[in-house]
Specification:
about 270 residues; alpha+beta; four-stranded antiparallel sheet; 5 helices
Amino acid sequence: MKNSILKFLALALFALTVGCGPKATEPSKGDGHSGEEKAEGGEEGHAEHGSEEEPGASFKEGKGIRLSDEATKALEVTVEEVTSRKLKPSVKVTAQIYRTARETGGSAERSGLAYASAFVDGHVAAKLKAGETVTVIVPSNPSTTLQATLKKVDNSLVASTDKAEVLIESPDPENLFKMGEFITVELPEAATPQDVVAVPFSAVLDTAAGKFAYVKNGDFLLRTPIKTGPTSGDFIEITDGIYEGDTIAVSGAEALYLIELRSTKGGGHSH
C-alpha cells in the first residue's frame, strides 16, 4: 500500500510540474510586439495553464483537473459512463474480535467459536435478524471467507445515535482470529435485487472529509461529494451526488486527489 501511494504521488507531482511549464516560445526583446499580443489571460512568456498545447495536468478551482493524454495514460486514469445496475444489497462493516475460539468458561459464548461486535446504521439494523448467515473475511488471508451467524442485533442506541450493535458468532477451527483483531463482515440486507445507480469501488475516494468521485466537467474532472449505499460484489450504490449518464473516473482517483492537494496545499499553482 505504501509503495502504491508513493507511486501515485511521484506520478502526480511529475504530471503537475510538466503541466505548469512556461510557453515553448516567447517574443524576444525589441521585436516590436505590442502588449496586446501577449498570451491571452496571462503575462508575457507564461501560457495559460491547462491549455491544449501543454502536456501534464492542471487544476482550476471550481472546474477541476484537466489531464493531457500523456498524463491520463501515466496516471492510469480511465473514465466510464454511470449506469444503473441490479444489485443484491449487502453491507460491509468492520467488527472487532472480543472473544477467541480458544477461550473457555466464564461466558455465555460457546467455546470453539470466535465472537466479534460491530456498529451499523439504524436503517441497516432494521433489516437484520438474529440467526441470519453472514460472511466473515479472514484478515490474514483475504481470499478466505467463513460463514458465520448474526448472533444478536441490539437496537437500544438507535434512537439517540442512529447506531445499533451487532454481534457475530463465527466458527474458527484453526484459531485464525486474534483477540482485539479487526475483521470485515458482510451483512445481508433483507431486500430483493433492484436497479440502482452504482459505480465500481475504485471510483469512490474515501477521505477524512467524506466520500467523493471525480465527475467529468467539460474538459475537466471535478471532485464531487457523494453519498453511498449498500454494496454488491465490486460495486457500490450511489444515493446522491452522481446520476445515471454522468461520466466519472473509475480508476486513478487517488492520483487525481494527489494532484489537487499538490495544487491547493503543496505550493503548486492553483487556478
